[in-house]
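Quick start: what a row looks like.
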Amino acid sequence: MTTPTTLVVLPGLDGTDVFLRPLLASLPETIRPVVVSYPDLGSGRYEHLLELVQRAAADESEFVVLAFSFAGPLASMLAAAEPQRVRGVLLAASFLRLPLPSLAPLEFAAVGPVMWAVRTIRRLPIWLFRRRDDPLRVAKSEIWSRVSARALAARVRAIMRVDLRSVARGCAQPILCVVFNDDHVVPRASSEDILTCAPRARLVSLPGHHFAMFADPRPLAQVVIGFVQESLASVDPVGALRDE
């Protein structure tokens, strides 16, 4: 019997597996996902989260990393820290530095009360126009009950301060950037930034918005399966998937 390949999964800003569940359910038994959840307390800094991820993967001899949005810099740091064990990095709707530089002056507003107000405002359309059993409404409700506004604010501040381009330049592992065509949260320019920095980075475009892996996980699941197989085979992991 073939031993499953470990896929270390790093969530986005919410730090939970909630939005990842449809994708994880779409993966075959040959891939064993290890989802690293982020603590609701703490600074939210990438350096501190890296220690958490390394502890979670301490018993894995080799693995592929799948990182969403917020977790892109974290995955890059992990690949640099564990060059012998990390076989490949898949960055979905992610970045190496603040995706929208125009927001940098607003770091002062990345605090708990402001984040609470933003969440409340964004909650209204979901509560008013979606049924109680709507999957997105159910998922959002769980996240809001598990993740504090303070924790989200700390992670937003981490995004505003991060710049991992120099780390990506030294990354020897294959990197696959996945962009969603209708993503208005992390623009395509962020993936092109990664391509410029990382020597083995490639790009794949998929349909959908920022949370496409939740609405329709099948396209991304196929990309993940192919990338995992090719990364472990030590060949060009995205030759057949490259999107110029």
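That is the whole record. Residues 126 and 134 are 9 Å apart (CA to CA). The longest helix spans residues 112-129.
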